[in-house]
Design goal:
The protein is mainly beta and 175 residues long. Helices cover 11% and strands 41% of the residues. The chain has 2 helices and 11 strands; from the N terminus they run βββββαββββββα. The chain has helices spanning 65-68, 151-166; strands at 10-18, 21-26, 30-35, 49-55, 58-64, 81-86, 95-100, 102-110, 114-115, 129-135, 138-143. A 6-stranded mixed beta sheet has the order 8-1-2-11-10-9, with no helix packed on it. A 5-stranded mixed beta sheet has the order 3-6-7-5-4. A hairpin with a 2-residue loop joins β4 (49-55) and β5 (58-64). The longest helix has 16 residues, at 151-166.
Length: 175
């Protein structure tokens, strides 16, 4: 079945649930979906970072999206997932995990159906939003993977991870 819309006008959106909110992210920013698995806490890791995931031998930082949105921390359940996001930033961290309550679906959307986020500054930060999709009962907020954490936080995390992996004392016995 073909659509009348040109291919560049169509996008795919991954919809997921965080707390009682349905959110989305454009599929081109998603690398993979993983069932929840225990994370390794990292010293000095500020909220909303909730730990490191060992992904095929690479340490991937994971954020708790609920905490990032100012909500109570996620309590992982049976349907909890970690969405691995591809970052397009000039930093050493290229992937970021995002803990969500449940992945719902992938759907096609029209580029023109994405509206700009309203100017709500300074009442609240809308910098992590790529836009919104109007629904019959409200909006689905589209997140931008590159703005879930500040460049400062990502840069500091990259430095911390690099320093810990190159520290010759790491893994050495203190006996």
């Amino acid at each position: 079945m073909q659509s009348d819309a040109p291919a560049e006008a169509m996008l795919q959106c991954l919809r997921f649930r965080c707390a009682a909110t349905t959110l989305g992210i454009l599929l081109h920013q998603v690398c993979e979906l993983l069932e929840y698995q225990p994370l390794t806490p990292f010293p000095t890791m500020p909220a909303p970072l909730c730990g490191l995931l060992n992904l095929r031998g690479n340490a991937v930082p994971v954020i708790d999206l609920a905490q990032r949105l100012g909500l109570p921390a996620t309590v992982p359940q049976r349907r909890s997932c970690i969405i691995i996001l591809q970052l397009a930033l000039p930093l050493q961290i290229r992937e970021l995990g995002m803990l969500v309550d449940e992945v719902l679906m992938v759907e096609d959307i029209q580029r023109q159906d994405i509206e700009a986020a309203p100017p709500l500054e300074p009442l609240m930060s809308t910098g992590m939003l790529a836009g919104m999709i109007r629904e019959t009962t409200g909006f689905t907020l589209l997140l931008d993977a590159n703005h879930l954490l500040s460049h400062h936080t990502l840069g500091r995390l990259a430095q911390d991870l690099t320093a810990s992996s190159t520290d010759p004392a790491c893994g050495a016995d203190d006996d």
